[in-house]
Structure formats: C-alpha cells, structure tokens
Amino acid sequence: MVRVSSFRLFILAALLSAAYIGCGGSEEVVAEDELVTDTGITEETPPEETPVQEETPAEEQPAEQQPAIEQPAQQQPAPQEGPTKEQLQGELDAIKTENMQLKDDNTTLQQSNRDLTTKVSDLEAANAALASTPKKAEPSKISRRAAAPGASSADEIQAYEGAVAKTRSRNYRDAIGDLQMLLSSGIKDDYADNCHYWIGESSFHLKEYSQAIQHFQQVQGYRFSEKNDDAQLMIARSYELLGDRSKARSEYQKLVDQYPTSEYVRRARTKLK
Question: Which fold has domain 154-272?
C-alpha cells in the first residue's frame, strides 16, 4: 500500500510538472499584443493613438511692402535768360560783315558813277568836236532823236523800238526780221548801229554766235556809236561760248585797252585773271 501510494504521488507530481511546463510555454507563444476571448477570436490591441497636434494657424504675415516708385519730378522750365556771349559775338560779326558788304557795294556804285560821268564827258567832247565840222559830216549820235535832216523818221524810230521790244520779250526771230528790214529800207546811221547790235543780241540768245559776232563788228564800224563797248563785250563772250578761249581773252583785253572808262572793264579784267 505504501508503494502504491508512493507511485501515485510520483505520477501526480509528474503530471503537475508537465502541466506547469505546458502553461509556461503557452504563455511565451501568446503574443503580448493578442488576447484570447471567450469565443476564441483573437483581438488585436489597437495601437496607442498619438494625439494629433492641432496646427496653430500661422499669424498672417503682412505682405512685404513694395518700395514706392519715385515719380520723376516735373522739370520746371528754365527761366529765360538773355543772349549768351557767343550769341552776341555772332550777331556782332554778322553786322560787321554786312557793313563791309555795304561798303563794297557803295564803292562799286561810286566807281560806276565815275565811269558814267567820264563816258558822258567823252560823248560831250565828241559832240563838241562834231559841231565844229562841216554840216556834211555824219550827225551826232547824241542828237539822233532830233527831227533834223538825215535823222531817222518817227515811223522808223517806232518800228525800231517795236523790234527791240520783241528782242526783250525773247521773240528773237521776229525781232531779227524787223531789224533787217529797217536796215534794208535805209534807216539812218543814228539807228543803224543799234539795229546791228540788237540783231547780234538776238542771234547770241539763239546760240548763233558766229552770226552774232558779225553784227557786233558792224556796230564798231560806226564812228560815234554808243554801243561800241557793249558790242566789244558781246564779241568776247561769243568767242568764249564758241570755245575759242584764246580769241575770247584777246577780245576781253581789247575791251580793257580801247574802252578804259567802260562799265564792263571790271568784268573783262575778271575774265583775264
């Protein structure tokens, strides 16, 4: 009986040990975050919620103040000032130049006046010499408009003036025809030289320079023609336009030598430079 009891105690002790070991093992298997309910369904322990921090609304920052654009200051008109020293000097120089030009013009006018006075004196001397000659001599050009014997008639003078008017209005062909008709009809010497001159002038404007030279030379065939220096100038100009510079220069020199008191001497000397 004692042995049976001891064996039973041994069996019971072994069972208790096995039970203890089994309980300990099951505890290790069960996870700490799992729970077994009465129904046998395993529930997961909800994770610990982390409190969400409410975002504190940021204080509205004032917008960065833009620098104000400086408006350009309105320029005030500069006060009117008087003329500068340079302007005054420029005006003074202009006045001096104008004064010198006026002096030159005055000198030229005085020279022309002296030339005309000399020419009148020459004509008066020629007229006086002619008055002392016999009456059969040619009439003086100065008295050509007088209604004296040997002078052109009023009708001839009127026809002559009409022809000259045509020349001045540039009706050169008709003027030449009228003047040649007067010469053919025997107009007196007091107007004949002028007829030749205006035929030469009309031919010159028509660029018929050789024909013009012939009539200008006819003018110089009259002893007391007042158109001699005019004709001499036109002869020189005609040769110049014909391209004969040597002959033109010779005729300009002739003008200076033979008609020293002529108003055209200054122009001729300019051509001779």
Answer: 1.25.40
